[in-house]
Design goal:
With 327 residues, this protein is of the alpha+beta class. It is 60% helix and 20% strand. The chain is elongated, with a radius of gyration of 56 Å.
Length: 327
């Protein structure tokens, strides 16, 4: 009887144990399923790109939103699409790094110059492959091309007028080199943050040079203003002189043509009546010459006699008329 009772108590205990083991398995399965499910999806925001690596083969994903991946087989690496920056010549605390900023110019002067390089990811797959070295490669290349470019300019150009050209040259060379290196990065902008001589005395000298250049620009502008004011007056004067010269030219031509016409007319008359024409020309000449003449004759005794040429010229005129009429 006691044996039967003992057996009756053992049966429920075994059932309970089996039921508990089955529940644990279900819980474990649910946990594993939840883990696998949570690792099967990932979210991608608008400012991110992702590279999915499947057995060593990376592919890029750029579309924002949820995406599926195979757990334990595919690995997702997210990267920012935004522009990143790199300082050369100073650190994050805005402290100068002389080993990067101090350079030699074409005229063998020293200059401290700070750059800021802006870059972004243009090829996610190549950037993923070189994720451990791409930024360092970019920094080394940037420092190299910056020094090469600064070295072909004089120190005053680096500090004053040549900044824009230096920035454009560094950007162009660096962009071309990054295309060859193919590390997935592209240059957005290159900016000179600051440039100055390494000593206070030299810096003051360059400030004086800059002031002199500004004064020169001011004087040039004033000269151009004076030029712009005087040129219209000079053009007007020149135009008037040309018009006066043209008028005088036409006048002289007209006079010459009139004289030629009179001479031709006189010549035609001379051909017809040579003797009469000669006498008329002589008389006309005498009419012009005699009234202005005064003839004084000195006598042997020291006396002087003034001939009445006015009356004489009148007699000549009268005589000439009568002679012409006689002819």
């Amino acid at each position: 009887m006691f044996k039967k009772l003992r057996n009756s108590h053992q049966i429920p205990t075994e059932k309970i144990a089996k039921a508990g083991a089955g529940g644990i398995k279900i819980v474990l399965l649910l946990i594993v399923a939840a883990f696998l499910l949570s690792n099967s999806f990932y979210m991608l925001s608008e400012d991110k790109v992702a590279v999915v690596n499947t057995f060593g083969k990376p592919i890029s994903v750029t579309k924002a939103g949820p995406h599926f991946k195979i757990p334990f087989i595919q690995e997702v690496y997210k990267m920012s699409k935004e522009i990143s920056g790199m300082s050369i010549g100073y650190n994050e605390q805005d402290e100068s790094t002389r080993s990067e900023s101090e350079m030699i110019t074409k005229d063998f002067n020293f200059v401290n110059i700070d750059f800021y390089i802006e870059y972004r990811i243009i090829d996610p797959v190549r950037a993923y492959i070189h994720k451990d070295t791409s930024v360092e490669i970019l920094r080394n290349l940037a420092q190299s091309y910056i020094r090469d470019t600064v070295g072909v300019y004089n120190v005053d150009e680096v500090i004053t007028t040549g900044k824009a050209e230096i920035q454009a040259t560094v950007k162009s060379k660096l962009s071309e080199r990054l295309e060859l290196e193919d590390i997935g990065l592209g240059i957005e902008n290159v900016t000179i943050q600051d440039s100055e001589p390494p000593t206070t005395e030299v810096n003051n000298a360059f400030k004086a040079v800059e002031d002199a250049k500004q004064s020169m620009d001011t004087m040039i502008n004033e000269a151009k203003k004076y030029q712009s004011e005087r040129i219209p007056e000079a053009n007007a004067s020149a135009d008037k002189a040309r018009k006066d010269a043209d008028a005088f030219y036409q006048q002289r031509i007209s006079e010459a043509e009139g004289q030629v016409a009179r001479f031709n007319q006189m010549y035609d008359e001379y051909i017809k009546y040579p003797l009469i024409t000669k006498k008329r020309m002589f008389y006309e000449t005498m009419e012009d010459v005699l009234p202005s003449l005064k003839v004084i004759i000195d006598g042997s005794d020291g006396t002087q006699m003034l001939l009445p040429l006015d009356q004489f010229s009148t007699n000549i005129q009268n005589g000439g008329v009568s002679n012409e009429s006689d002819q």
